[in-house]
Amino acid sequence: xxxxxxxxxxxxxxxxxxxxxxxxxxxxxxxxxxxxxxxxxxxxxxxxxxxxxxxxxxxxxxxxxxxxxxxxxxxxxxxxxxxxxxxxxxxxxxxxxxxxxxxxxxxxxxxxxxxxxxxxxxxxxxxxxxxxxxxxxxxxxxxxxxxxxxxxxxxxxxxxxxxxxxxxxxxxxxxxxxxxxxxxxxxxxxxxxxxxxxxxxxxxxxxxxxxxxxxxxxxxxxxxxxxxxxxxxxxxxxxxxxxxxxxxxxxxxxxxxxxxxxxxxxxxxxxxxxxxxxxxxxxxxxxxxxxxxxxxxxxxxxxxxxxxxxxxxxxxxxxxxxxxxxxxxxxxxxxxxxxxxxxxxxxxxxxxxxxxxxxxxxxxxxxxxxxxxxxxxxxxxxxxxxxxxxxxxxxxxxxxxxxxxxxxxxxxxxxxxxxxxxxxxxxxxxxx
Amino acid sequence: xxxxxxxxxxxxxxxxxxxxxxxxxxxxxxxxxxxxxxxxxxxxxxxxxxxxxxxxxxxxxxxxxxxxxxxxxxxxxxxxxxxxxxxxxxxxxxxxxxxxxxxxxxxxxxxxxxxxxxxxxxxxxxxxxxxxxxxxxxxxxxxxxxxxxxxxxxxxxxxxxxxxxxxxxxxxxxxxxxxxxxxxxxxxxxxxxxxxxxxxxxxxxxxxxxxxxx
Lengths: 432, 214
Fold this sequence. Notes:
Chain A has 14 helices and 14 strands. Chain A is α+β, with helices and mostly antiparallel strands. In chain A, helix 12 (338-380) packs antiparallel against helix 13 (394-421). Chain B starts with a strand and ends with a strand. The interface between A and B is medium-sized, with 34 and 33 residues.
């Protein structure tokens, strides 16, 4: 008798034998009980994984992008000012670069840009091969704002700018179109809009935010200074990309640069159209709020499902206890103490919830993993993904499992308490 | 062995209370074979519950094997039941998903006897009941008489001093009834006190002493 009272549940082999044989011999009942919990945890895992995947998918494309960046371009003026009529076309120029660098201390990186407008038909030639690509003239700082990494060779640098070298960084698709598979593009020459450039590096875009149109894999970037002189842009600048220094809000910087650029180019201060600009920070705040919302929703729905599962278990346990009143009555008549009976029922319920939870957890994670593999494959084949790397962190999985164990304990304890409140003899005579 | 002194028991039925046992006095010596008789609703089951420490009583005193049984905790009661008492029920009350051997061995499980050992002992008792070849059958595969013999084996396995049998032949035909009674007689001859609740006179007639509850 004493041996039954004190034994620690986990290591009481005989108890486990009893429990497992009781569960095995009541398969349908055990299965139904387990299913609620299984479904709860399965849905929680699947949903939070899917939510995370959506977040990863969208954020992956923008994560490497400097969130403190702003962009400026020019439009025709909408207000007559300082002797100019409305509708004037204008451009930024090299003096702006110098002025901004020297006078606006909030600027971290500044990169002017020229757009090589894509002409009809192919603009790039290499021997027999031709292709139509988007060309930009940039400063090396641009690679720090919209992150690009060299796959082969190197990125363009300050010396290329200073010496106006005719060199280019090309996107991965450019290589595919203009080169054989086993050919090394580094050091080779391309004729872009009539001018020869030497390839110094193949570059890969880390983000999918696209400034200036075209696909990022089909981009050719050349030194800004080279582009200005080689294609007769004079001292014109089409576009500015800037980032703010730490501690400065990019939206403040954006407003400040708007003011300065308008003043420098005699644009009316209240002209809302002439200086086009936007900052990434604003977009990021929107994204973050969206994903927080998705996550909260996922958790609410997931935990709700889990809770429903646990209530289901508790409920089924109650039914089981009712069904087992006689069995429990017999056990008590032949010497089972209430403690032993409670231990049995609770252990049974914990065992069921944990097993079911574990299966749900494994299956959920397994399906996410399969999904991940499929996504990786389709990513390799080049399709755009808004669903990427569905993952679930270990901490969360363990927390869910912990909740399950505790919930299982309660789901068992409540019916067990009820079970022992019934007098054994009533239990035994119940069926008559 | 058993000594009851003016035992009273009433049940609350809503606002009324139903006075079932009105001052029962009873002495049962060790080794006696006693039957308790009475019409239904006369309180014979209530009496059996009190004797079997399955229920409390309101007034009087109950000494079992020299110990006063009063307001016992469930744990103490369970211990006493397990060590001293065996039960046989009208509806057999075998656990349906356990086979004959496991059913018989169950009381030893609550005593903390290892599975292997208790199964060996259970087989011995089944053998005594002539049911060795039925050891691996579920209760649903056995006849009423066989089930009752399994139940008797189960009540014997913890080597009790007293066996309570609540209408042990109530669910059996007359031939099987007599078989079961013969087994109970045998058990009694080994020195175990037997107390049977019954409403059948021929069954009661096979015992040494008849106690009538009015």
